[in-house]
Design goal:
Largest sheet: 4 strands, antiparallel
Strand content: 25-35%
Strand order of the largest sheet: 2-1-3-4
Shape: flat
Order of helices and strands: EEEE
Helix content: under 10%
Number of strands: 4
Amino acid sequence: MLPDLRDVKWRFYDPSREDWVEEWPEGNERPPLAELTLEMLGEETPHKFVFWLPPVKEAAVAADQPAAEATPTPEATPEEPPQPEQP
């Protein structure tokens, strides 16, 4: 795809340090920014791209609505399996 690609580097912005880090700890919230650096053969200046990563929000469940698993629907709880017809 990129035959002249010499090196690829990712960095992530850590707002608590107010600095870029090369590794993002697993389990932490998503970093707000990611930087991609591409170094090409024959070029002295690397190409840098910064991406904004939107935060991930958990789906909120309204407090006044019961959970879907708490109340089984009639389709989910059949009474008895159908019996074969007798000749």
